[in-house]
Amino acid sequence: MREVELLIIGSGPAGLCAAISAASSGAKVLILERTFKPGGQLVKQTHMFFGSESQYASHRGVDIAGILLKKVEEFGDKIEIMLNATAVGFYEDNVVTVLKDEKEYFKIKADSAICATGAFEKSLAFPNNDLPGIYGAGAVQTLMNVYGIRPGNRVLMVGAGNIGVIVSYQLMQAGIDVAAVLDAAPRIGAYLVHASKLARMGVPILTSHTVKEAIGKDCLEAAVVCEVDDHFKPIPGTEKRYDVDVMCISVGLSPLNELLAMRGVEMKYVPQLSGSVPMRTESCETSIPGIFVAGDASGIEEASSAMAEGYLAGLCAAAKLGHVPEDFEKRKAEYLKQLEGLRSGPVGDRIRAGMKSSQL
Amino acid sequence: MFEKTGVATREMVMTKFPPIERINKGPIAIVECYQKIPCNPCQTACPFGAIHIGEDINNIPERDENVCTGCGMCVAKCPGLSIMIVDGSKSEDTVEFRIPYEFMPLPEVGEKVVGLDRAGNPVCEAKVIKVMNPPSFDRTPVVTLEVGREFLYDFRNFRREA
Predict the structure, then answer these.
(1) Cis peptide bond upstream of A38, omega within 30
(2) Using 50, 70 and 90 to split pLDDT, how confident is the model at B119?
(3) Which of A35, A254, B37, B145 might form a disulfide with A275, Cβ 3.0–4.6 angstroms?
(4) Cross-chain Cβ contact B80/A348 below 8 Å
(5) Does the distance separating the beta carbons of B41 and A53 come in below 8 Å?
(6) Please, which pLDDT band fits residue B34 given cuts at 50, 70 and 90?
(7) What is the overall mean pLDDT for chain A?
């Protein structure tokens, strides 16, 4: 059985930053990545990021993946990335079982681990929601921006959060018509600068609206939407039909962290963090010593926070393994300060409440 | 209303414009950032220190009309594409706008395009004066357009004729 010092599950923004941080302290790191390409969701993000210089603000997500991977390369003797390798189990003796290339199945024993597994897209229940042509918005973004495939010709976007409006804009950049963006909430959830970009392209954003049903025989042909009242109840007589061949569902993400639950760390349902999350310390350590969490797996936030959290978790996990750099306290304080800055404004209210209730 | 549609009201827009005398003097950045979000590249991008956000990166940027030269370094750097440059010094009848435009194919210099307002409604004709797309803009081209002066507070975007 292979033994590793620090195992990082996931090579998205949190996992890569954790690896860079831990390796720079001297830890030996193995990263498991379930796809054929490292970078997680960064690889499909063609828009510029928010945040400050420390989180590569104003760079495009896909380019940030490149910057981080270059740093990973600089620690070539310390960091290994195993691709097409899915962690499928996490046991009490810190053994992680791995399925590689969908054929090899083996065990890895880790002295310490960081779970940076990200998130999954929520779905929405309405009649015929299983028709071909109805996608998660993230899937459409992958099709377009990673594989260069047009998902269809005319799209209805369901969800006006950041992902919904960003993917709508990128659909238009790809020459695809966006009929409308709708959201059951009374207000736009996305950063309003993103919403304004769409609005001035002439795309209507319909708040207090939901999908009543999808129509189509073999694939999506149309969608019927309607207004909802203050209690999210459909208002009869407000139905509108959109002839579309694609519907994107972008109604939020949930943390993906079943591995941690399986390992036995203390979990808690925290609505502000969008699901069940591990309880953790300020240093991103869970209730089991040596098991850390970073990024969306610990609660849904922006990629900028995932990177800062990754750097923090990597630093602290390495320190716990005995790799304590001289400037440990200074670096830790810096990452905590970055996170505080990213979470301090009004859009961070929810996150701060969630952090408080998931703190060990 | 803004939080429901993404379309800023005239009152909101006016708070971001300097007095017309300043616009007539020469180019200046209009920073249409209305919401406190954690973001500060505009401050970092400005070579003159004309955009201030401060220690808390959630603060709304403040542009000093006396310091801003309208150089446009911030335009392609804003992740929300919320910044444009206006210049009323070129003519009594028209104003020049420099706006970010991330769609292909790019317009040609001299081309007549349809000027759109903040809700995407066609409001005027606009003439393309210049198209800038240097590597430093990182794939956010900036297009300079000439627009009738009466559309100073309405014009915000354009589309090419089919």
Answers:
(1) no
(2) very high
(3) A254
(4) no
(5) yes
(6) very high
(7) 97
What tens digit of pLDDT does each residue of B131-153 get? 999 999 999 999 999 999 999 99
- Residue A316 makes CB contacts below 8 A (sequence gap 6+) with A283, A284, A285, A292, A332
Spans of chain A below 70 pLDDT:
none
Q: Does the structure show a pLDDT above 80 at B162?
A: no
CB contact B39 to A (< 8 Å) = yes
pLDDT of residue A347: 83
CB B11 within 8 A of CB B122: no
Q: Quick check: A340 contacting B, CB < 8 Å?
A: no
Tokens coding A340:
């505080």
* Chain A residues near residue B114 by CB distance under 8 angstroms: none
Nearest CA in chain B to A172: B103
Render A33-74 in DSSP notation, one character per residue: -SSSSTTGGGGG--SBP-B-GGGTTTSBHHHHHHHHHHHHHH
Helix (H, G, I), strand (E, B) or coil at B69: coil
CA distance B139 to B142: 9
> What is the three-class DSSP state of A97?
strand
Q: How many CB pairs under 8 A join A and B?
A: 139
CA distance A289 to A297: 18
Considering only alpha carbons, which residue of chain A is nearest residue B9?
A196
Q: What is the pLDDT of residue B47?
A: 97
Which residue, A40, A54, A23, A9, is CA-closest to A339? A54
The pLDDT tens digits for A121-133 are: 999 999 999 999 9
* Among B58, B123, B156, the residue to mutate for chain A (most A Cβ within 10 A): B58
> How many residues are there in chain A?
360
Can you point out the beta strands (E) in chain B? 28-31, 51-52, 62-63, 83-87, 94-100, 112-116, 122-132, 142-148, 157-159
Run of H or E including A275: strand A275-278
Q: Which of A162, A200, A208 to mutate against chain B (most B CBs within 10 Å)?
A: A200
How far is Cα A273 from Cα A288, in angstroms, rounded to an integer? 21
Q: What's the gap between Cα B45 and its chain centre?
A: 15
Distance from B156 to chain A by nearest Cα, in Å?
Answer: 7
pLDDT at A55: 84
Q: Is there a contact between A199 and B3 if contact means CB atoms under 8 Å apart? A: no
Tokens read off for A117: 């597994």
CB contact under 8 A, A193 and B81: yes
Yes or no, beta carbons of A200 and B119 under 8 Å apart? yes
Tokens of A271: 């609505």
Please tell me if residue A350 touches chain B, with a CB cutoff of 8 Å. Answer: no
Each domain of chain B, given as residue ranges in start order, spans 2-159
Tell me which residue of A237, A181, A190, A189 sits closest to A209, measured CA to CA.
A181
Q: Which domains does chain A have, with CATH numbers?
A: 2-120+253-357 (3.50.50.60), 123-249 (3.50.50.60)
Quote ipTM for the complex.
0.97
